[in-house]
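Model it.
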Amino acid sequence: PTIAEYSKMLVDKMPDYLSMVYFVNSGSEANDLAMLMARVYTENFDIITLQNGYHGMSGNSMGLTSQSTWKYYTPHNFGIHHAMNADVYRGAWNNHENNVAYKYANEVKNLIQYATSGKIAGFIAESIQGVGGTIVYPDGYLKKVYDYVHQADGLFIADEVQTGFCRTGAFWGFELHDVKPDIVTLAKGIGNGVPLAAVVTTPEIAQAFTQKIHFNTFAGNPVSCAAGKAVLEIIERENIQQNCAIVGEYLLKSLQHLQETHECIGDVRGCGLMIGVDLVKNRQTKEPNFELASQIHELSKDLGLLIGKGGLHRNVIRIKPPLCITKTDVDFIIKVLDFGFNYYE
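Modeled.
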């Protein structure tokens, strides 16, 4: 059966200890289920997540999401606490300071000590914050956070909805941080547009979840699983991961070169084919330039280039192209953006 074949293929891409998979239909559902698993397994309630993160729009996952743009006027935050995110461009500390990763990680430690009983169900974070403006954490940050979370008896949930399936140049975004998550959530690229998502975890955590019945009508749909299986086969056959790493590095360097000639580009950051261009009105004050980002967004569309906007102030150009793009495609991206910046400057 397709579901059995696909499940085996999927967990084979994970670390050996993550061998159980539960299929759902969207990233929001996956993060909902991951929260429930963590609470059932640990018998703790509190969940820690990061400011500026995005984890979905369902009743529960909206509580994890930490941007006013994505929140409605309904109760959704009970038992969920948001720590300062490790933003080395706009945050409290930058990469030029000593122990920056530890300073940000201590914010998670402090939140656990002051806002909870000292015991938590889990911590969830994107490997790179996507909707939040492609925020790349400082080296060692997530590894230190893992330590604090496990000391509080919590599970670490890696939200790989945007960063998974080679997007960052690594197969999984958490691999960039040299960490071992207890639960991994997957969606978006998993099915190449077909409704499919998954939660991957350990046998021990999965066993604790069998105390009650948890059912999903369309979980493991054979059509969706066939699409997911085809995605993994194509990634392998066409060396997609290698392409993401090589072309992604070329894209990042090309954008950094563009930054040298345009004062409106405050920061260029990212990994693989997940890049953010932070637009500012002034490089010294870092005042967000939402207006320019909107203009570039619309002009690029007219010129045949689809890009996104992100960040709390909607001033970050988000570049997440198809994983099969070439360096020639990157040259086109740079040409369009260069034209746009020259036009509006």
